[in-house]
Design brief:
This protein has about 450 residues and is mainly α. The protein has three domains: about 5-135, MgtE N-terminal domain-like (MgtE N-terminal fold); about 155-265, CBS-domain; about 280-450, Orthogonal Bundle (Tetracycline Repressor, domain 2), CATH 1.10.357.20. Helix content is about 65%, strand content about 5%. Strand 4 (about 230-235) and strand 5 form a beta hairpin. Helix 8 packs across helix 10, helix 17 crosses helix 20 (about 425-450) and helix 19 (about 385-415) packs antiparallel against helix 20. The protein is globular, with a radius of gyration of 28 Å. The protein starts with a helix and ends with a helix.
Length: about 450
C-alpha cells in the first residue's frame, strides 16, 4: 500500500474504534461496505483482537471467507478463538486443506479436535494427511486437491477432467502428468492444452517436471519454486508418487513468513506472527523478554573482562574512552557478515559445506575493513592523545574486525549444520561474543604496547 492508503486506513481504524466504543455497529457496517478486501484485512490488523472479531462478524458470509483467507495465520487464530463454535465450524469447512493446516498451527491443541470433527470424512482425511507431515516440511503446506492427467490422454479428455474438478482444485494452470502408478512424469500448461487440438495426446507437448519431496524443508522448496518461476510445484512422497502441489501464492506466503522470522530473530525478538497493532502487550513483552535475559547473562562476560583488567584501566584511564567504539565496531562488523551469509543461505547461494570458502572470504573482508578503520583510528587517536595510544587502537580495530567478520560469517553456517535457525545465531549472540573477546584483545594489545 502507498503511504496515502495507509494513512487512510489508519484514519478509518480510529473512526471504527470510536464507533465500536459507542456501540454504533450500524455505522461500522456502513463504513466497511465500500472497503476492498485488502483494506479490511489491514483494518483488522490495526485493531485489538476483540474489535477485529466484531469487524469480522459484520461482514457478509461471502466476504467474510475472502477476508479470512487473506489474513495471516496468527490473526486467523485470534479471530477463530474470538468467534462462537457454530461460526468457526462453518468457516473451517470452507477452507482449503492446506489453509486449515496453517490455521491449526496457530491454535491451541485443544481447539483442533473440535474443528476437525465438524468436517466431512473426506475433508477430515485430507487435512489429517497434511498434518501428518513435520511442521517445517513442505508436505504441511501443499494442497492435496490437484487435477492430474496422463500421457496417453487426449486434450479433450484432460479438459473434461479440468471442468469436472474446477471448483475443488487449488490450481488449474499447471497440471501434473502421472503414469499409472501416480508417479510424476511431466507437467503441462493449461495454456498449451487450450491451444492444442482436442484429439492431441498430452505426451506430445508435456514438459519436464520440477518436483519436491513432501518431507523437504518448506522454505527450500518454496525458494526453488519462486526462483524457477513455477505456478505450481508437484509434491511427491518417498516413492515418487504425487501427493499434492505447492502453488506460487503459497510459496510466496512461506517465504514472507520465513523472512519475517529471520528479521525478528536477528533483532533479538521472537516473531509476532500477527500485526503489531493487534498484538496484546503481554505477547509483545513475551516476545522480547527471553532474548533480553539471554543477552543480559551474556553481557556479564563483558563485565567480567572489564573486572579482570581493572588494574590496566587504573594505570591508563584513557583506554576506557575507546571501549564503546571498539565493541560497537566489532559487533557491527560481525552482524554485517552474519546478515550477508544468512541471506545467502536462504537463497541457496552457500551451504554448510562452503564453510572454508566463507571463512576465507570473511577473514579477508574483515582484515580489509580493520586495516582501513585501524589506520583512521591510529591517526585520530595519535593526534588527539598519544601515538602509542594510536597504535593500540589501530591494531585492536584490525584484530577485532577480522575476528568479528570471521565469527559472523561461520556462525550461520554452523547453525544450519546443526539444524538450528541461522537467524538465532546471528546478531544478539555475535554481539555478545565479540564484545567479550574484543575487550580481551584490546587490553592484551594495550599491555604489550604500553608496557603496563
Amino acid at each position: 500500500m502507498t503511504p496515502k492508503q495507509l494513512q487512510h486506513i489508519s484514519d478509518v481504524a480510529d473512526s471504527v474504534e470510536q464507533l465500536i466504543t459507542r456501540g454504533d455497529l450500524a455505522e461500522v457496517s456502513a463504513t466497511l461496505t465500500p472497503l476492498p478486501v485488502p483494506d479490511v484485512v489491514e483494518l483488522i490488523g490495526r485493531l485489538s483482537i476483540a474489535d477485529g472479531a466484531i469487524i469480522y462478524r459484520l461482514l457478509t458470509k461471502a466476504r467474510s471467507l475472502e477476508v479470512f483467507e487473506a489474513l495471516p495465520p496468527g490473526m486467523q487464530g485470534d479471530i477463530v478463538q474470538a468467534l462462537q463454535d457454530a461460526e468457526i465450524t462453518g468457516l473451517f469447512a470452507e477452507m482449503d486443506p492446506d489453509d486449515r493446516a496453517w490455521l491449526l498451527d496457530e491454535l491451541p491443541a485443544s481447539v483442533a479436535p473440535r474443528l476437525l470433527q465438524g468436517l466431512s470424512a473426506h475433508e477430515r482425511e485430507m487435512t489429517a494427511a497434511i498434518l501428518g507431515y513435520p511442521k517445517n516440511a513442505i508436505g504441511r503446506r501443499m494442497s492435496p486437491e490437484v487435477i492430474i492427467t496422463h500421457p496417453n490422454l487426449t486434450v479433450g479428455e484432460t479438459m473434461s477432467r479440468v471442468r469436472e474438478n474446477l471448483r475443488r482444485a487449488e490450481t488449474i494452470y499447471t497440471l501434473p502428468v502421472t503414469d499409472s502408478g501416480r508417479r510424476v512424469v511431466g507437467v503441462v500448461s493449461l495454456r498449451d492444452v487450450l491451444a492444442a487440438d482436442d484429439d492431441a495426446q498430452i505426451s506430445g507437448f508435456m514438459s519436464e517436471a520440477h518436483i519436491a519431496t513432501a518431507d523437504e524443508d518448506a522454505e527450500t522448496a518454496a525458494r526453488r519454486a519462486t526462483d524457477l518461476g513455477l505456478l505450481a510445484l508437484p509434491i511427491v512422497d518417498s516413492e515418487q508418487r504425487l501427493v499434492g502441489v505447492l502453488t506460487i501464492d503459497d510459496a510466496a506466503r512461506i517465504l514472507k513468513q520465513e523472512e519475517s522470522e529471520d528479521a525478528a530473530r536477528q533483532g533479538g525478538v521472537e516473531p509476532l506472527r500477527r500485526s503489531y497493532l493487534s498484538t496484546p502487550i503481554r505477547r509483545l513483552v513475551r516476545s522480547r523478554v527471553v532474548w533480553l535475559l539471554v543477552l543480559a547473562v551474556g553481557a556479564t562476560l563483558t563485565v567480567q573482562v572489564l573486572g579482570a583488567f581493572e588494574a590496566t584501566l587504573a594505570q591508563m584511564t584513557v583506554l576506557a574512552l575507546f571501549v564503546p567504539l571498539l565493541i560497537g565496531t566489532g559487533g557491527n562488523t560481525g552482524n554485517q557478515a552474519a546478515t550477508t551469509v544468512t541471506r545467502s543461505l536462504a537463497l541457496g547461494e552457500v551451504t554448510p559445506r562452503d564453510v572454508r570458502k566463507v571463512l576465507s572470504r570473511e577473514i579477508r573482508v574483515g582484515f580489509s575493513l580493520g586495516l582501513l578503520l585501524g589506520l583512521l583510528g591510529f591517526a585520530i587517536a595519535g593526534l588527539v592523545f598519544d601515538w602509542h595510544i594510536g597504535v593500540v587502537i589501530g591494531l585492536t580495530l584490525l584484530a577485532v574486525c577480522t575476528l568479528a567478520a570471521s565469527i559472523g560469517g561461520i556462525m550461520p553456517l554452523a547453525a544450519r549444520a546443526i539444524k538450528v535457525d541461522p537467524a538465532v545465531f546471528s546478531n544478539p549472540f555475535i554481539t555478545t561474543f565479540v564484545d567479550a573477546t574484543g575487550l580481551i584483545i584490546y587490553f592484551l594489545i594495550a599491555k604489550a604496547v604500553l608496557g603496563i
